[in-house]
Amino acid sequence: MPLTFTDLVEVDLSRLATAVTDWKSTVDGLRTQAENARKGMRAKSDTARWAGVNATVTREFVTRTTKEIADLHTEANSIYQVLDDAHTELAALQKQIRTAVRTDAPALGIRVEDIGDGKVRCFFPHVRGDTDERTQEQLDARQELEGRVNGLLAHASEIDASVARALRKSHGGDLHNAGHSAYESLNDAQVERALELAHKGDGMTDQELAELNRLIHYNGREKDGEFATEFYEGLGGPEKTLEFYAEMSIDGTGGDATKVRLDAVRDLQQNMGFALANATDPDTAHHLPGSWGADFRRLGTQEIGWEQGQWNKPYGYQVLGGLLRYGNYDARFINPIAEHITQLHKEDPYRFLNNKPMGSEDIYGFNPSGRLGTGNDPLNSVLEALGHSPEASEKFFTDPPTAYNEDGTVKKDGKVGFGTYLDLFTDKDFEWTVDTNDTNILADEDKTKKALGYGPEALGHALESATTGRPYDSDDTADAIRHTPERAQLVNEIVTKFGEEPGLIRHNENGDIDEESGPLYAMRGSLGDISAEYMGDFQRALAGGGDQFTTFGESAALDPDSAHRFLAEVGQDPDAYASITSAQQAYTADVVNDVVNGDSDSSVSDAERLRNATRAGGIVAGIMSESRADAVLDYHTASDKEFNEAAADKQKWADRLLGMGIDKAAERVPILGAPLEWASEDIQESIMKSIEKDSSDQAEGDATRTYHEGRSAVMDSARTAVGAATRDSGFTADTINDLKNSAANGADDGHTAGATMESAGDAS
Fold first, then answer.
1. What pLDDT digit, counting tens, does each position of 713-757 carry?
2. Which of 113, 154, 404, 520 is the most buried (most CB within 10 A)?
3. How far are the Cα atoms of 471, 711, 727, 740 from residue 736, in angstroms, in the given order?
């Protein structure tokens, strides 16, 4: 029975602390008794000249008694170690849950209700006269708090169950025989149970698999890496690890698998992936030996079987890829694997797909998550791994490539045949595969197009991770991280590549326009996120320089023409458009704030400086208006509804870009709790309004497009930025109004210039 909310919040853990102290005293006392028995009674018994009955009965009694005292010490020590660890962990969880309930919840106006079965419900209590209408931000905060509290309760329940199980096994249930299972920590007991379950393989019941998932989830990510390392060692090594995961992933994705089983195997994929990243990090206190990486590379091109007489066997990399999709991996482990897989794919793109299962509908195979393919092509999987591993992905794209042999060993003096992995993946002749098990894939053009986008989308994730220093799917409150020279140079190369060859990422579904879609258009969402991250660099380039357009860290030194053509093509994607528009307005607000409230000895008036400050953002907005119109009216790849809906998911860029302006010299700027109140709410509201206004409802093929609503939107956003910056300035209402108009005029000039530049469709 799981711990309840009330159990964890109200329990007096000082009583457990007292029990720990008492058991420590018992351990110390029994250690002394065991030592005395061994050196005294047992030593004398062993050297005595026994005769008659004493030679058998008495000597055996002494030996057995000495052993039993030692066993009592072993049992007592196990109990002490387990209880001590449990007290430490439960006390930390109790502190967190009390803070969540007694501090965080009241601050949000939320109540927490115990609904039993180890879960709570968070809700906004009704207040007389209140409409009970909640903003999306409030609803998100409620959901986050409820999930956090329930996660803490689930973790506490797992500890409670592990302790109870360990104590039973230590005691053994025999009143006349002590010292059964011996544990040096609670972790030892948890690893033992996890391996006991894992060794059952697909014979685990749904309840047992759920228990295994809890054990790995709550222990596999601990910073010291002890559980993760011991778990993988206990599986029996790299090959046994692959066999176990292959068996479980097929068990959960087969045609007769229930939804409960599929969901559990999806959790297992994620939990084992995070644990593997932890266990293979050489910098953790406990970690697997480096030979595991070499073994995985060797096994990557070998067939892996887990059933006797098995016919269809996957390659090691197909299985491993499912695990690599989750976790932040160290470059020393993941990059040699990523390089080896990429080089194998370059040599033969269908090497791994040729042995995929046939005749079944689109099951998920070794990628139970179902995200970006079935997992039969390990290239997609390892690119996703890099997308979650920022330091590794940065090195992968910026360090010189290393050549590998078939067996994954380094090829001495070998040549890879290309300059960088960015060069390789963006080569128009690079062949991406269709990673799906669907039997009708070749007959369904839409399914084929979608599947061909899996690899490029994963590539976008890897590049996003490499250039931002964060996993591509990090949450809204993830830190802003200063741009290193390597990251900035990579952005320069990306913008130059697609600025010079925009056709690579062009998408066209209009048969009236004789242009083929490029092979990499599926990565435009990530390119939009990269553009948002480096908005200062883009505005600086489009403005022709200017000290007011500062970069966050090293400058990417973008070429203005490449920057324009790049934005024009990328902005046709709704998600990219939303990211870029959000970042543009937030960055412009930062620049406006610097003009109004920063230190300057310029003799130019604030009004003129504001006009200059908002013009670059206006240019970006104008390019976005043109891009949106191209996508909706010319290429027919998206609708205004899709552009508007994408905006709600990109609010993270507003706070992150505003945060970058707080301390431009900081290595990291934590967004959560940063002093953004001066602008955040106003800017976010302005972003939503401007995106909704910037519609593309002109007649199809209209050569004289107008952007009245788009111009109005960018002017309004400039006024909003001035309003936020002058809130406590002491300026008169007339002065503030004049400054707003000046900023709006600058934005208007920029928008006109951006929209009338060479259009996105003609950018090539």
1. 888 888 888 888 888 778 889 998 999 999 999 989 998 888 877
2. 520
3. 41, 21, 9, 6
